[in-house]
Amino acid sequence: MGLSVSYCTLQRFLDHWDGVRMVTLKLLACFDEADLRRNLWQGSRTVGEMFHHIGGHQFYAARGLLKGQWEPSGTLEESPDADWDLHKHLTIYKVETLHRWLESVHQRVHLWAAEVPESRLSDFVPDNPWHEGMRGWLLLQHAYQDEVHHRGQLYMFARQLGRIPPDVFAVDHPDYWEQRKWR
């Protein structure tokens, strides 16, 4: 017999992701603009491209899951994947622009999540481009985990460049955690 109670609500999951994003943004702040062009080897993603990828993956997976829209449409502002190359060019080599991009994607996910029933997360999402038949929760978790593992790479970059990255966990940031710890 299967248990039908969700172990987590979408809002609690997004609240947790807020903490992950807060740390990602603090990590971004420890890089300067010259650092954003660095990569480990020729042809690998630069620091700026990794941060952009984090936002892009979240945008694409969440829009597909929560809005049912996998294909780009509209203007570049409405749908950055309408022209990823141009969007990346305008975004990846400025710390402030990357910061705004990551914040705006996360805010959009909150807005999109408010418009869908929670059942969308337990339903199969047959039209996603990665894994047909993946449940919504797993698809959203896919983008979340992508942020976490790329952030690990970015911590390595920061340390190699002599930067001091922020503490890894949101609970270690009193400015963020104190107001949230008992929610």
What does this structure look like?
The protein has about 180 residues and is mostly helical. It has seven helices and two strands. A two-stranded antiparallel sheet has the order 1-2. A hairpin with an 8-residue loop joins strand 1 and strand 2. Helix 1 runs parallel beside helix 6. The chain is globular, with a radius of gyration of 17 Å.
Could you give a short description of this structure?
The protein has 183 residues and is mostly helical. The chain is 56% helix and 2% strand.
Shape: globular
Major sheet: arrangement of strands = 1-2
Span between termini: 31 Å
- What percentage of amino acids are in beta strands? under 5%
Quaternary class: single chain
Helix/strand/pairing category: mainly alpha
Main pleated-sheet profile: 2 strands, antiparallel
Q: State mean pLDDT (0 to 100 scale).
A: 87
The Cα radius of gyration reads 17 Å
State the low-pLDDT regions, or none.
none
Helix content: 55-70%
Secondary-structure element order, N to C: HHHHHEEHH
The DSSP helix count reads 7
The strand count comes to 2
Descriptors for this entry?
single chain, 183 residues, mainly alpha, two-stranded antiparallel sheet, 56% helix
Topology, element by element:
Layout: H1 10-29, H2 47-67, H3 84-91, H4 95-114, H5 119-122, E1 124-125, E2 134-135, H6 136-160, H7 174-177
Helix pairs in contact: 1-4, 1-6, 2-4, 2-6
